[in-house]
Structure prediction request, 229 residues.
Amino acid sequence: EVQLVQSGAEVKKPGESLKISCKGSGYSFTSYWIGWVRQMPGKGLEWMGIIYPGDSDTRYSPSFQGQVTISADKSISTAYLQWSSLKASDTAMYYCARSEYVQKGPDYWGQGTLVTVSS
Amino acid sequence: QSALTQPASVSRSPGQSITISCTETSSDVGSYTYVSWYQQHPGKAPKLMIYDVSNRPSGVSNRFSGSKSGSTASLTISGLQAEDEADYYCSSYTSTSTWVFGGGTKLTVL
Prediction:
């Protein structure tokens, strides 16, 4: 069974760093792209970027370039999304999702990680 | 500012059909060939309903279909059921090798 299991909810202060994770199982982790999607409270979905764990090819949406870092550790089938300095506006639900090829819509999604940034 | 425009909300009665549009408003969307549609129920992760404009993943009801004409992609849901009530998002791969979502459409089944 294909599963993407994300790390648990986080509560952080502005300026702090954070790395959330997404562990894939039930499929060849290095053969599928993993994308990250943000959903701010009560708002729509926003593509952040995507990585191919097989060779770490990473692409960012312009709005998120330089704001976050996407990475993957294929040895443990885990993708990451990290921030070096959080802002209150980073408060959102973050989803990881798997794509068979880079242009295709993701078919499996993680359960989401809620990140709350508040002083 | 999204490059894909969707109606904010639509409503129909059970048993009826509905078509939700997704119009490309930016040249960054490129060929607009890789359009996907997602269903999201409150508090849940999105679910892929249509990919590559008109392909349906296994397990998705054949009441859902996708199409495209010019710069507008469409999701059609036939025989509406109460469980179809959800938010629907279109998404497209862009010419800059990234993706963009539409603003989402809230479907109410009256």
